Amino acid sequence: MIEATLTATAKVVEPTIFDLSSPGRVGVSFPEPDVPRTELPKSMLRADLPLPELAEVDVVRHYMHLSKFNYSVDGGYYPLGSCTMKYNPKIDEDTCRLPGFLHTHPLQPIETVQGNLALMYQLQEWLKEISGFSAVTLQPAAGAHGEFTGVLIMRAYHKSRGDVKRTKMLIPDSAHGTNPASSGMIGLQIVQIPSDARGNVDLKALKEHCDDTVVGMMLTNPNTLGLFDENIEEVIKLVHDCGGLMYGDGANLNALLGIVKPGDIGFDVMHFNLHKTFAVPHGGGGPGSGPVGVAAHLADFLPEPLVGILEEGDDETPPLFGFVKPAKSIGRMKAFHGHFGGGHVRAFTYIAMHGPDGLKDISQYAVLNANYLLARLRNTYHVPFDRICMHEFVAEGQFAGSDVRALDIAKRLMDYNFHPPTNYFPLIVHEALMIEPTETENKDTLDAFADALIKIADEAKTKPELLHNAPSTTQFGRMDEVKAARDLVLCCWLPEDYGDQ
Ligand SMILES: *Cc1c(COP(=O)(O)O)cnc(C)c1O
User: Which label site among 22, 250, 295, 372 has the fewest CB atoms less than 10 Å from its CB?
Assistant: First the structure.
């Protein structure tokens, strides 16, 4: 049984697939073989492996039942800050399932996959144009993997110039946790740079740390407060003047499409989150895609292989696409060519469908929606860095004289059938509620969400127990977080008599 320990309501018990098993039920039937039967080698049969016995319909109903407890972007509003949970257009699902894309293998001879390679080449070109960079790799599997790739490139660049005493990475205190993690994994020392009162990088602190031991700076712009750094040119100049490189965390590109090119304002390298900005579905462990763009002086260091043109075409013949190796490549970052079908084809479709004007609309509406919600909520929730925001903003989930916390507000929103915003991040806002409306929501949805948050603020004063005990309308109520952390059960799907394996 899968059990959830709840603070407010009784234990909810859902049967597992093993509970539903009944000896002799089968879900598959094979045709009579037209070759002689042979016994399987004994070593391949594991008698100890518990396999449930069910019919196909039992399995389908079991998982369909469980899937209904999930919240999804197709099921409701999902204003999860920093993650850009926008609606994913269904046309992307059609194209990524086209047989020519779906049924190809990465080891096929290039002559037989020219369409796939042309798509990847064009996606590299579009990402270059959108970002202002000179070259792009599609290999990295997600944003964090893109950061790791980008920081390796930065280090390789300094090393190639004999500049070997650089060991420090400057990272603002508003940064996403993956920034220090990816630099740390490469063995760099992290230097935290504070934010100033307006939510910008504190220039004075930055100046103090800029010296010839700096590999570079990792900056998210707009940052995780949803604010465009007002001194961005000066920040970049300071880092460049001490010989460092500027890494752009591109997770917030949804605020900039068609408006600002990070390469043009001086960033040297940046990752894209195709699964955020370009509507590739994510969450639940689905495949991400984190291409990396670099300025000309870093192009030789990109991972190999890139997709390139091996033979130019003419009016009669299309070009021959294939793989090329950058001269000083840091090597391969991923098996084969990255997440082709799940990531590249969907993002390609999305960009092709929108075109340049459509991409610009995306960012303008994302920013407009965020400012609309901010305007509706700033009198109810304290917004510590309150100025025109980009595609998201961060409010405080606490009220003077009340013991209600951001977590209670987030849980209570579930009772109103909204996915909670990101909470407790960024760390520089107390009881943070980080709200990213995205461009795909209409005014009715934004208003309903704002109404719910305003109502919850009122409940916090009049009926705080409603918030402390929330959620009360979902299948599982408030989880016991302490028990979950101390008493971690990682394999609750195994039958009880399976032993300790
Ligand atoms: C999501 C995110 C990342 C990491 O991207 P993943 O694809 O989740 O690995 C990095 N920085 C910021 C600001 C993000 O929002």
Answer: 22
